[in-house]
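re: ur question from earlier - yeah i can do the single chain one, its not a big deal. heres the input i used so u can compare w yours
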Amino acid sequence: MIPKMLCRLFVLLLVGVGCGLAQVTVPDTPAGHMLQAWLAAFNSGDRARIETYVRTVDQSQSVDGMISFRNQTGGFELLSIESSEPLHIRFRVKEKGGPTTALGNLLVKDGQPPKVGTFGLRALPPGAVLENVTMDAGERKKVIDGVDIDLKEYYVEPTTAQRIADALKAHESKGDYDAISDGDAFAARLTDDMQEVSHDRHLRVDFSPFKMPPRSEPTPEDEARFHHQMEHDNCAFDKVEILPNNIGYVKFDGFMDAAFCGPTVVAAMGFVVHTDAIIFDLRENGGGQPAMVTLIASYLFDQPTHLIDIYNRKEDSTTQNWTLSYLPGARLAKQPVFVLTSKRTFSGAEEFAFDLKNKKRATIVGETTGGGAHPVSGHAVADYFMVGVPFAKSLDPVTKTNWEGTGVEPDVKVPATDALATAEKLAIEKIQTKKDSK
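and the output i got, formated as tokens:
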């Protein structure tokens, strides 16, 4: 039975949700009760309930991130329980606000109270057939050997790639993986072991309990589904508004496909073009496409500006990213700019902050970012496993440095929850100083 503390949490979160979770029988296990607690908090959309869930059992989650995701999906309907153990459950859900079906994976760390160890949702491709995959020694070896090959061929730091491969082989030979029969647990353990050596948060192994189709060019149907999802998510733009004192506020949680989402950027930048200062909120932004970073940054400069270089190790080539010479709509090159960051700000979002800070075009306000400066690509290593291999590195064109492992340090360091209010005060001061100088 579930410990009393989690029972009390579950009852607290479930109040007011009604019997919407009763359509599927959820196992009476710690993992089952944790799933119910997550669904109840998430589907409620209520900040207080979500804060209770995050604070009590899953501090790796972000309250604002969960609320934003809830608003995008409309919540989730539980369709089925795919597999169940006392501390591990797989389940299938469908978003209420759209057609996407996702496979969920939840592992619970036993304790008083139990806490979430691993939680993930993965959109299921059309026609995917879930399989009950049990890892054995042969399957584990196949995954490790595949990871070894891809790291040595693609990883941006060859010496580190060798050290990672040696560490995985050492764990394997000592029998550290022998008791792991679950694919998710094996992927999580390999990820931990690789990151322990590399400290590279882009480097990871992922498991899916269905066979990955051979890689090929996306079909028109694939493109249509992808574009529909981006439209549904408004290209990750969450809020664009004018705050008091004529301060523009733009919150977006990802750098999506610039070719498709360009019109959304044009509309957002056009809305704030006549403001006296601009705040970009990247506190929940996990990164994305470098071309989108370049597109949005280009609006903030009136002269060609060399933003970043990207060095590809396998090709031994460097790509220079400059601001774009042509943009639809007016530029916003005169307004003071503030970028809000948190420890969750990662990858491409960090590049945006890094570029603007180094070019002295923005004041960074908030927390030190996550520390991921290596673009990544996915490689299938076995029927059910993929490894994300960082194949390149971002480098400042002048200092030849980046933010890998260290993050982008804010100019004004405050807790992420205080970043917006702090940036507003700073913006008002800048606006007033500009007025006084006239």
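The CA atoms of residues 150 and 379 lie 7 Å apart. not sure if urs matches, ping me
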